[in-house]
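User: Here's a structure from my thesis project, written as structure tokens. My advisor, Dr. K., wants to see whether a designed sequence matches the one we expressed. Can you design one independently, without my sequence as a hint?
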């Protein structure tokens, strides 16, 4: 079984030291500004968890995956960020007793998943390595939530979401991180579980209510349609706001996306001189 003591414990969003309430309407405006400064290929989406189905079913325009079909969670996330769906997801919509629901805490992975049996001889040579992989995987606490909703923030249907997620190229993600650091510097560390890397992106962000950056895994690319050059950053809404405001400030001094290459065989002094006295 995973050693839950080794992982960060969940905290309420408003207990985060930098917390600022950001409404759904404000996120709509921020989404428009994101399109201007970063030009992402797919939609920025929100993710919110619910303790009751009644609460989830109150969301305007809610869709449910087709009954009897079991998806990977990354497939459902992609339906939202590419097709613009607002999807209500429960344990009956994802692969049963797997990490797809386990990362969200809406289902409990079975023992052959948790002890590494399923991945031994596939992703890992031996069960010791496979079990260690499961033990170190960030997961939302099981038993608190029964459903997760994903929806584009442009739709303003989650007021507010627990986290905002943005897929982008490495160049887009580093510019976003530069925006996060512009007004209030902090170092952002990546974590990479390996296979099931969704645990390091939305799983970790849902658990800690903090920004998480990771590289999507094989399954996210094979089943979820994540492109070869895409990374993922997941964060609470106030961090999303901070990142966009910072990118806008950087853009005003000429540091913006796309980044025009200066060339490896030129004297960089002319370009640097435009930024540094």
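Assistant: Designed independently from the structure alone:
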């Amino acid at each position: 079984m995973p050693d839950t003591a080794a992982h960060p414990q969940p905290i309420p969003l408003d207990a985060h030291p930098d917390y600022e309430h950001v409404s759904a309407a404000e996120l709509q405006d921020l989404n428009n500004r994101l399109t201007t400064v970063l030009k992402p290929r797919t939609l920025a989406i929100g993710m919110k968890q619910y303790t009751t189905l009644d609460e989830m079913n109150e969301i305007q325009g809610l869709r449910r995956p087709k009954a009897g079909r079991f998806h990977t969670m990354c497939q459902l996330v992609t339906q939202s960020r590419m097709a613009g769906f607002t999807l209500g997801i429960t344990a009956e919509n994802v692969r049963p007793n797997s990490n797809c629901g386990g990362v969200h805490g809406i289902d409990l992975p079975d023992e052959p998943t948790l002890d590494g049996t399923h991945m031994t001889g596939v992703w890992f040579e031996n069960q010791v390595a496979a079990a260690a992989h499961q033990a170190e995987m960030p997961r939302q606490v099981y038993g608190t939530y029964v459903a997760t909703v994903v929806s584009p923030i442009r739709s303003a249907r989650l007021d507010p979401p627990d986290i905002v997620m943005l897929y982008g190229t490495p160049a887009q993600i580093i510019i976003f991180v530069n925006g996060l650091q512009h007004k209030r510097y902090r170092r952002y560390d990546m974590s990479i579980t390996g296979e099931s890397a969704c645990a390091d992106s939305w799983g970790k962000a849902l658990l800690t209510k903090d920004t998480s950056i990771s590289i999507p895994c094989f399954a996210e690319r094979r089943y979820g349609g994540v492109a070869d050059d895409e990374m993922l950053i997941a964060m609470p809404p106030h961090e999303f706001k901070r990142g966009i405001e910072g990118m806008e400030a950087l853009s005003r001094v000429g540091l913006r996306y796309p980044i025009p290459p200066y060339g490896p065989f030129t004297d960089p002094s002319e370009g640097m001189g435009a930024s540094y006295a």
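When you compare it with your expressed construct, this may help: Confidence is low (pLDDT under 50) at residues 1-6.
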